[in-house]
Amino acid sequence: MSGNLPESLYPDLDKVSLDDHPGALGDHNPPPAFGIMDMPTVVEHHPFDPDADAEALYGAMRGLGTREKSIIDLLCARTNDQRQRIAMSYKNIHGKDVISALKGELKIIISGHFESVIIALFKVPEMYDAEQIHHAIHLPLSDEDMLITILCTRSNEELTILKGAYRMQYDHDMLAAIGEHVHTSAFFKTLLAAVLQATRDERPEETDLTQIMKNVEQAKWDARALYDAGPKRWGSEKVFIPIFTNRSLPQLRIIFEELEKLTDLEVEKVIANELHNDIGKFLESLVKYIKNKHKFFAEVLYKSMKGLGTHDRKLMHTIISRSEKDLGSIRDQFDKMYAPKTLTSFIVGDTSGYYKSILLALAGCKREHEHVAHRNSKEHSPKEIKNHGGVPSIRMSQHDDDY
């Protein structure tokens, strides 16, 4: 990649318009539509009675032991907004915060991860995100992956609300906190600051043919500027930041398509080959998300469970935060990417007890798991065990049983 584009164009990259270059359309065909259907796994429950649900939760926490199955079934079939209304009803009826009531019961017999999911389900999304940001930047080695995953995948409105939630919760500006506690490159912080400005063009995908063609030509200018500069300059010169943080997602997909024509290589691979630091991770993640958000989050889930150990915080946050948006689509994409294994089999293999059960319910994997469990139980019936040498089965404790 050489400097074939005149240097004088760089300061005006964010202003380049086809209107300034009439007759430049040529015969370029408009790009295909980029719409991807989002399938949530948690939707509004109808009919909905918050008082009845509050009483059901109260009943599940009374008597001999907590009825975890009832709690899971109820909470995973209600949206966050409905859970907020249940919490208000519980407080009005019983004079006690539902989280305090649940924590009082669950701490007796349930592992920390199950309790963490239950509590997270009652947090409004922006407060849950704010907590993850706060945790990520206060680790001895800050968790850039969590910062990138949250900040690069939220809308302008969501980012604005998130900043307000962080200030309300921690009495501190989020960007200032990142600057103080994230020990990484200055340019990485500059990229995060640009994202937090929440100025991305969010106009819907263009349908007017003339405007589509203008957008394509604009994309050619941006792609050529990126190509001539090369990835190392993308990650060191502020002039390129507006392309990644201000352009609309449909426009960026066209830019990447044009750039790949020049490089003959996927953009994320170009970045991975030439940028190996936090900036490379940021740009690579942003490109992957923009090109296909379902694939991006499928990979996030995979990385949270692959190998030895499980990144439970990332696993929980991804499943909870995407459940009302597109987790069904992410699950289907996961199953395609990592076949013959499925998201269900990964969760089953990496988690246990009611923690496993609630994640499966939130991810819409419960039926698949029950089907596999039923098939396996038939294959290992007492008669079959006897035929295989009479090896006795191992009974798990009651709190590790799947429901």
From TrEMBL:
Region (Disordered): 371-403
A GO CC annotation given for this chain: plasma membrane
Keywords attached to this entry: Annexin, Calcium, Calcium/phospholipid-binding, Repeat
UniProt-listed Pfam families: Annexin
GO MF: calcium ion binding; calcium-dependent phospholipid binding; phosphatidylserine binding
SMART domains on file: ANX (SM00335)
Coiled coil: none
Matches recorded under InterPro entries: Annexin, Annexin_repeat, Annexin_sf
Record keyword Ion transport present: no
Biased composition (Basic and acidic residues): 371-387
Keyword Thylakoid: no
Family listed: Belongs to the annexin family.
Name by which UniProt lists this protein: Annexin A11
